Amino acid sequence: MAPSPDPHDDPRVNARTPQTPRRLTREPNVAFRQLRGARSPGEFAAAVRRAAREIGEQVACDARYIGRVENGEIRCPNYAYERVFRHMFPGLTLADLGFSARETVRGRGARPLSAAPLLHITPRPDHPRDDPPGQRVGPSSDNHHIHQNHEESDVLRRAFMTGSTATVAAVSLGLGPASAHPVQRVGEAEVSAVEEAVRRIRLLDDRHGADGLYQRAAQPLRTAYALLDASAARRSTQERLHTGAGELAISVGWLAHDSGRFGEARSHYAEALATARLAGDAGLEAHAFCNMSFLARDMGRPREAMRAAQAGERAAHPLGSPRLLSLLALREAGGWAGLGDRSACEESLKRAHSHFARGTSPADPEWMTFFVEAELEMLQAQCWSALGDWSRAARHAHRAATVQDPHFTRNLALYRAELADDLARAGAPAESAAAGQQVLDLLNQVQSTRIQAMLADTSRILAPHRASPEVAAFLERRAAVAV
């Protein structure tokens, strides 16, 4: 399953509460710093992400996380990071890596299972658990599995509860209006909680799609903006909170976008853009424009999509991230394709490839972990589809589905749905039906209005070919799923 944030990754040991009036001292993690060697924190973070992919994990590791480990702020990694670090440094224990034992960091008993986490998905009875490869648990392990899910998936609520006032805790749990009692002070725990909420939403979306997440994600967003109205202790804390709240607005906007709530998505993206400009955060501004471009394309506004992408490129140029520029060039290409301008689309695609070929960079934003070769191929497929070159679109969609990491179920289903649609329009009904069947195989794990709408379009195109056994089988199965 996708790694969850862990309570030991939050800095609550340093939070000021009525029961703990003094801050505990931090001890730098010298052992971990030595393991990093001559690599920069960004380079080492990239190595951690690569190692995670090798064992089927996903961790949102960046230079800031490495810094938090090395300065002693993270005394024990979560379970996903522990598995990755043990893979990177075989034979070393947590102690050898400079971490404290998990039970000494926790400092409390097990949490009652009846307390529901804020962003936890309970699988349906027919919804297989998404355990890590090689770690599928049997019935005898269910209690441990459930306990671990609860322990790892509710860091947002615990961070608010342990590191802030009762008012913020109430807001985070939806127990009262944000304005009832203004928060007097915002510190590290609150900001870290907002950042972890962003990561958690992205990870859950990768696994399950947007439909089941949107309503639950709205409350953390309201909490984050309530915190923006409170006074932060340091300027650096204020800046992180603005960025975190803006990224959270984009994440919630994407959930609305992917589940077909375009008006709500547009509002969330605009809120993120306003936050970025108030804070002078070019990275957040580029991200907001990137998503606004994508949304405009889906809303049938190609000129707006093109202009939003260009605005994003202007914001992104000083940031030094070729991959970000590549993605924005692809968004611009999508706008040109929607306008029917093949020449301008091809020019934008050429720039996208040129930027992509420069590889990853420590300056790449954390949210861009999804932008790999498979996504590059998918966005090209969408461009050629918009231009009516269905065969060329199908080739790129097939490539996207082939190279996509199978752990990212939602994207795999999306790419195969694009392939099915392109093949249907290209005059290959049997091949289209086969790709559609593969999408249906994944729908017990993914809830996405976008994917359902794509399958509906494909079904309409294939309907005249019902005489084909492959097509008939797909249409019958898809109709049963759609009921």
Automatic annotation (TrEMBL):
It comes from the Bacteria. Residues 1-23, 119-150 are annotated as: Disordered. This is C1 regulatory protein. Residues 1-13, 123-133 have a biased composition (Basic and acidic residues). SUPFAM superfamilies: TPR-like.
